[in-house]
Fold:
Amino acid sequence: MPALVVFQRRWRIGSDDLVIPGIIEVLLRAGWLGLTLTLMVHHESDTSKCMSGSHLLRVYLIGSLVILWVTLLITLVLVYFSSRGTIMNTAPRKHVSSLIVIRVMVGIPEVAWNIMGSVWVLTGQVHCKPDTALPLLMQALVIYTWVAIGLIIIGILLLFDPMKRPSRQGLVESGSLG
Structure:
């Protein structure tokens, strides 16, 4: 099984090794999406109890929902393509590298959005009445997002090959092996 090559780097996994992690991410993001949607629907009335920052909460929730939907769809497509083919027939998985690049590109706005949400929610720009659970729920959402981003970064660091060794296919094609 050839190693996955993304960003001109060889990784310690193959293109078929993303099925189980992808399914786990889909399940976690689907739950996360459900919780965010529930938070937005059930606590929309709580935003009127905020003296300042109610519009920031709405904007953050809507942006989070959009990013979660896009990420969930990309991950579903990635799982689908990663599950195709066989060990020796990697042609059906040829789009996996491109999907990973797209997923990383969506991850950049996700990090930026969470930085913005962190600033809004954790620095006190949102002031609500004490009987409102919305600021606490928003803090939990921001923290959960940071934990998820941290786990993704740890996974990338574990699987990334920093030596930039060429793929085995490149060596075979150039006649360097065997």
Q: What stands out?
A: The chain has five helices and four strands. The radius of gyration is 20 Å.
